[in-house]
Design goal:
Chain lengths: ~350, ~130
């Protein structure tokens, strides 16, 4: 099965590749390091030019691990898990309260299509997937009645409480928020270049060592291949670009024989039937990029125009027919001929 | 990958054959390089790479040192997790993956499977893959 070419490749390129994976820096921590870790429910790849700060990589991974542990709704011990079972939790850190405050600001501006309190509904659909049976409409209505972010109470900045039956699922914002925390960490460090990629959320930091623009490959919602490449240039040393992507293709819910979109439409309580296949948002704030990618996806093509002309973020969207919508000023090169 | 070629009004037998061959070639030419199939999977535990697996080599029940309890299946250029020591088995329910940038993760075990592609100098790797 293995061709000679392949054997040559493995003999020569393989050791080089593993070198990249473990880092190409010297003993003082200079140079570019790359490490992959499991966090935020996905694979996170960190590429950092630590500029002599040898501990930075481990600090960033530590941040990701700590955030995963606090924000994961699937573990009972997390802050989010305890809030669900106890109804009230005193946060030792500002992490979760800040995420809730910042999301509320976004909801005020864009509306409440994305809600953090959607856990009763996501749990219902997770159970449906496990049982291979669609939930009943009365169960959906009952779960929808428990989704309302205005009922999340925050006292004295650290004490969170929710009504009985309520719970948080931060799936639509947690990765983007993590990118904001990591960006702050990079700004405080001596690092002058970094790419942190958590599949649907990406952070581009500073400038590449060769001062070339960043290239971000967009996954094709139709076949998982390459849809095209977005090129981004950073003008300053501490510049940040955050990217958030939502699409119908990622992690489908499988119930019986059918696949459903993993993004739930809180208006219907059911998997989204958006006519968009994928939305990527580019801006300076990770939480906003993550939040907006889901928000815009749910809004479908009918609500796209206002986002295409937005001043503080840019978007690249693809509808289910393969048509591309790209904000002016965003440099996108399709991998294949696309409909204009 | 639709071909915009419109059929001509007057056909001879040989025209149809040539057209069919052209059509097939254009579909193949468009399809092959663009699917960006990965050629290998990097299996890591807690950020440490345990193995880089060739996806073109069929291995129906692959076990890897350092990832005890896990069984991977490599078939048709794709990899999947078929057995895992974790409780929820979410990793086993993940779809088989074959495109560069796709991944399977087992959060409780800190295991990651990431499909990558062999890169050559002529096609530079992107800084990030999103989606
Ligand atoms: Zn697992």
């Amino acid at each position: 099965m293995v061709s000679i070419k392949k054997k040559v490749f493995f003999a020569i390129i393989f050791p080089l590749l593993t070198g990249v994976l473990f880092g190409c820096g010297d003993a003082q921590g200079n140079g570019i390091y790359q490490q992959t870790t499991a966090a935020m429910d996905t694979v996170v790849t960190l590429t950092l030019d630590t500029n002599g700060d040898a501990a930075l990589m481990q600090q960033c991974i530590g941040t990701l691990t700590a955030l995963s542990q606090q924000l994961d709704c699937h573990t009972a011990e997390s802050t989010v898990g305890r809030l669900q079972t106890e109804g009230r939790v005193v946060c030792t850190e500002d992490t979760l309260p800040r995420l809730i405050r910042e999301t509320a600001i976004l909801q005020k501006r864009f509306g409440s299509a994305v809600q953090l309190s959607c856990r009763p509904l996501t749990a219902l659909w997770e159970q449906a997937e496990a049982a291979s049976a669609l939930p009943s409409s009365s169960d959906i209505l009952a779960a929808m009645a428990l989704v309302d972010d205005t009922r999340i109470a925050l006292e004295a900045e650290r004490i969170l409480s929710v009504p009985e039956g309520f719970g948080l699922d931060l799936g639509a914002v947690a990765k983007g928020y993590a990118m904001d925390v990591l960006a702050a960490q990079l700004r405080e460090s001596d690092a002058d270049y970094g790419v942190i990629s958590a599949s649907s959320a990406v952070l581009l930091y500073g400038q590449k060592p060769d001062h070339q623009p960043f290239t971000v490959q967009i996954t094709d919602p139709a076949d998982g291949g390459v849809f095209g490449t977005v090129t981004l240039t950073h003008g300053s040393a501490q510049a940040v670009t955050m990217i958030g992507t939502s699409g119908s293709y990622a992690r489908p819910l499988i119930i019986g024989e059918r696949e459903y979109c993993h993004i739930l439409d809180l208006q219907t309580g059911a998997p989204s039937q958006s006519d968009l296949a994928s939305v990527s948002v580019f801006c300076e704030n990770g939480l906003m990029a993550d939040f907006l990618s889901t928000h815009i996806y749910l809004g479908g093509t009918a609500a796209l125009s206002q986002h295409l002309s937005a001043e503080d973020y840019r978007i690249l969207a693809v509808d289910t027919a393969g048509k591309v919508y790209c904000s002016e000023g965003l440099s996108f090169a399709p991998a294949k001929a696309v409909q204009p | 990958m639709k071909n915009a070629q419109k059929p001509m009004v007057f056909f001879k037998g040989t025209d149809v054959v040539i057209l069919a061959i052209l059509l097939l070639c254009s579909v193949l030419a468009g399809w092959l390089p663009l699917r960006s199939k990965g050629t290998q999977a990097v299996i890591a535990m807690g950020g440490i790479t345990l193995a880089v697996v060739d996806l073109e080599q069929e291995q129906p029940a692959l076990q890897i040192a350092g990832a005890e309890g896990f069984v991977f299946c490599v078939a048709d250029g794709a990899i999947s997790v078929t057995e895992a020591p974790c409780e929820a088995k979410i990793c086993c329910k993940s779809h088989r993956i074959d495109a560069a940038g796709q991944s399977i993760v087992c959060l409780p075990c800190q295991l990651t499977v990431l499909v990558t592609e062999a890169h050559t100098d002529s096609i530079p790797l992107p800084d990030a893959v999103i989606g």
